[in-house]
Amino acid sequence: MSELRLALRNNAGAYGYSVMITGALAAVSALNGSPSVGQVFLFLLGAVLSFAAIEMLATRVFTRPMNDSEGTKVIALGSSLNLFSIGLAVGAAALVGLVLPSTAAWLVGGFFASVAYLLTAAVEMSVARRIEEYRDVE
User: Where are the bilayer-spanning segments (predicted)?
Assistant: First the structure.
């Protein structure tokens, strides 16, 4: 059972992100049709740029380490709340797909989907930490 917990802990964030980015790609596709190969790369570029920008902020331009101090309970609970971050991120990509021209929607859709996911997932982890702190007090 400990191996299963370890596998879940090490893959929870990546799993949620994978589900989200696939859903975001599908949402933009549903609104703009099948992308060209170039538009797929624009989508990927947007997603990667957002991750890089947030990592730069979180690490103060890569001068501070990212601590891995959260306990397994917090990560498990926070990851179980990913429905919110995934849904919000896919909704953000869909909104971008509705309001921007097709090629711009591919770039901006990937960017906003990733930003929405990461920021909302951070809130979910914060909620999970507060719940675990409350449980520890009792």
Answer: 12-31, 37-62, 74-98, 104-123
Q: How many residues does this entry show for the chain? A: 138
Are 50 and 99 in contact, with CB atoms under 8 Å apart? Answer: no
Q: Is 122 exposed, middle or buried (0-12, 13-18, 19+ CB in 10 A)?
A: middle
Cα first-last separation, the chain: 26
Q: For the chain, state the CA radius of gyration.
A: 17
The predicted pLDDT at position 129 comes to 87
The token duo for 138 is 């009792």
* 63-118: pLDDT as tens digits: 777 666 666 777 777 777 788 999 999 999 999 999 999 999 999 999 999 999 99
Alpha-carbon distance 7 to 46, whole Å?
29
Burial status of residue 130 (CB atoms within 10 A of its CB: 0-12, 13-18, 19 or more): exposed
Tokens coding 19 = 């589900």
What pTM did the predictor assign? Answer: 0.85
